[in-house]
Structure formats: structure tokens, C-alpha cells
Write a structure and sequence with these properties.
Elements lengths: L6 H16 L4 H7 L1 H8 L7 H12 L1
């Protein structure tokens, strides 16, 4: 991403996405900490993939 030009940060982000992708995020946890994204997942607007969740959250708070 353009706002993370540092390779070390990009590697950390990719590692986080991979780790979260290997384990399904429980919907109860998603509803507790990301209620808007929980609704979007339930409505089929986004997937539960970590990248989709992060991008949606960024759009929500921006």
C-alpha cells in the first residue's frame, strides 16, 4: 500500500493477513469488535477475508 512503503511493514502486514486467513475469524468476535463489517459479511457485501475486513473498516472510519 502506498502509505506503507517500508518493506518490513509490508511483510508484517502480509504475515498478519496470512495468519488470519488460516483460521476462520469467529462471527461472534467480528460482531463484538467490527460490528459494521459483521453486518456487511452477513449481508454478503464483503467476505470474512482479513483484507476485506481491514479495507472496509478503513473506509468506515476515514
Amino acid at each position: 500500500m502506498y502509505y506503507w512503503p517500508d518493506q518490513e511493514l509490508d511483510d508484517a502486514k502480509n504475515t498478519l493477513y496470512m495468519s488470519l486467513s488460516r483460521h476462520k475469524i469467529p462471527l461472534s468476535l467480528l460482531s463484538q469488535f467490527m460490528p459494521i463489517q459483521f453486518y456487511q459479511v452477513c449481508e454478503g457485501e464483503i467476505t470474512i477475508h482479513p483484507k476485506d475486513l481491514v479495507h472496509s473498516h478503513i473506509r468506515t472510519v476515514a
